[in-house]
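Handout, section B. The chain below has 381 residues.
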Amino acid sequence: MKFFVLAALLCLNLTPSQTIYESVESGFLGTTRELKIQLPRNYEDNPEKYYPLIIVFDGDYLFEVVAGNVDYYSYWQDMPEAIVVGVNQTGSREQDCNISLENYMPSKTGAQFYDFIENELLIYMSENYRSLNFRVAVGHGETANFMNYFLFNNRPIFNAFVALSPSFSYTMEENLTRRLGLENTSKIFYYLSTADLDIKQNKKQIEGLNTKISNLENKNLVYAFDNFDDANHYTLAAQSIPKALQSIFLVFQPISKSEYKEYILTLETSPVDYLIEKYDTIEDFFGIKKQILVNDIRAIAAAIQKNKQFEYFQDLGKIASKQHPYTVLGSFFMARYYEETGKPKKAMNIYKSAYTLEGVDGYTKEDMFERANQIKQEYGY
């Protein structure tokens, strides 16, 4: 739930997302492979915009679950818009996930499928679609195990892994624990899930792995685990995907009530610096330069007011003016700064200047004029 609920969302995109069906020729597989590709809403109308890439293994049945949640969460700005690609593995799943019984690494058709993903599919997507380097892998059962092999590269091609009831190959638990314990130069997001009615062997191994990962101390690992009630190996996917997306894109989400109460209100440093760092982190993690939401500026303003840290209104006003230059937002907080620091005449003049600007999300020109008149009457200007 958002910290502040907007009365209306301006410019909501009502255009539906696009799903494209393509066949890609693969030299490694020696055949074509069918893909389902969901593009974000208004993809064609934003030719300069690039998007995170989500690769869905078992795309023949898992694609719609992922694509629907991605469209929903991005619609409400709880995650960035993303390109979702489902890889059809009907009739080839076992061969695609083939593992050597000698070294327990992808072998023969498994190695070919691995090369297809790394050296053909990702290149195809970057050449034909506007995809960013932030990539998410989603797998279920055997493919949830197989996708872990991409994590063992020195530079993993995926930044986030969503493992739904993985059926682990021999030594995978130990290798995965060791790998996730290594501090990388960039963040690794790892989501793992099981359920009460999951396959018994899977559940036992997954719970054991969860214990090991939970004990790791790695500042560059973002880890989340779920064990669902009344779900089985197949139905847990529908419950897992929303939780996984929330975990991976937590920092991208608007400031929530809990974030406001537990972090922002208790800060000993500038809440404005907290806001700047939040959006710098979004750009650093996902490669997305996101405009600071009015909702988040409002949350910081509320903290400044509640904690009587009025000196920070000036910094907030500068950011608001830069992020929303044609609105009253920046002027409002600059005026609040001067009003609370003993310069009412300067505050009044800034409030009065609002007639050239536009209102935004509850901050109106009328309110600015009223505040100017109140100061005028109180001080006799």
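Note. Residues 1-12 have pLDDT under 50 and may be disordered. Compare this with the example in section A.
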